[in-house]
Specification:
Blueprint: E1 5-10, E2 17-20, E3 26-31, H1 36-45, H2 47-55, E4 76-79, E5 82-89, E6 96-98, E7 101-105, H3 115-139, E8 145-149, E9 156-158, E10 163-167, H4 175-187, H5 196-205, H6 209-219
Parallel strand pairs: 1-3, 5-7, 8-10
Antiparallel strand pairs: 2-3, 4-5, 6-7, 9-10
Helix pairs in contact: 3-4, 4-5
The structure holds zinc ion (ZN).
């Protein structure tokens, strides 16, 4: 069984707790710096309890909002770290970002699920790939090809053939986070493991590295939300 949960880190906290909210979402509260492995272990050891709590048919109210986003006026979507409201319009044939709003042609709304995906993938190509080139030059690494991919589990990866692949969902994150993921993957071409040398190189390009890692841990699941 798959359990989704959010982690809230706090510097003042000493212990790890798991709570199930009224909407049945699972929240892990953890001291800042708690490793992902430790959180995974806790979730694993409470799996049955959590399963019961989140699937109980009476005690817990159904979620207030149906899961997932909807292609309707007023819904909001992320792009480069900002949230934009949707406005469905009758003119035009393509999505446009104008005056802080996503204008969505009404003839596209029956394509819920793919219409924004294509838009995001296109923006990811335009925005992320030139940054890969930029940081590769700064780090003095050679990569074979940089691509935008569709992994559900990773933000980026480097293949043995030195292809760097980045998850298109990253385009929803702030540029500072995208830069971190790019540098992280390119640094693997110099140092395959997460050694102190590895983190030293990443930090030389991304001084805010720790903040970026934290951001992804806390907000990563937001990037998965889709229409
Ligand atoms: Zn890595």
């Amino acid at each position: 069984m798959q359990l989704d949960y959010n982690v809230v880190y706090s510097p003042n906290r000493k212990t790890l707790t798991i709570t199930v909210e009224r909407d049945r979402s699972i929240v892990v509260k953890a001291p800042t710096g708690t490793s992902q492995e430790k959180i995974d272990r806790i979730i694993e050891s409470h799996k049955l309890w959590l399963y019961e709590k989140t699937h109980h048919s009476q005690k817990y109210l159904p979620p207030l909002h149906p899961p997932g986003k909807e292609l309707v006026n007023g819904e909001s979507l992320l792009y480069l770290g900002r949230s934009y409201r949707l406005e469905i319009i009758d003119i035009s044939n393509e999505i446009a970002l104008v005056n802080d709003r996503f204008l969505v042609p009404s003839n596209l709304i029956n394509r819920q699920g793919t219409v924004f995906r294509d838009w995001y993938i296109q923006r990811a190509k335009e925005t992320i790939l030139p940054r890969v080139q930029y940081y590769a030059e700064r780090l003095d690494v050679l990569f074979n090809e940089a691509k935008i991919g569709d992994s559900k589990y990773r933000w980026g990866s480097c293949t043995p053939k030195n292809n760097a692949i980045f998850n298109w969902r990253l385009i929803k994150a702030p540029m500072s986070i995208i830069n971190y993921v790019i540098v992280h993957e390119l640094t693997h071409l110099l140092e395959p493991n997460h050694t102190p040398r590895f983190w030293g190189i990443v930090k030389s390009q991304i001084p805010q590295m720790d903040k970026a890692k934290q951001w992804l841990r806390v907000n990563g699941s937001l990037l998965d939300e889709m229409l």
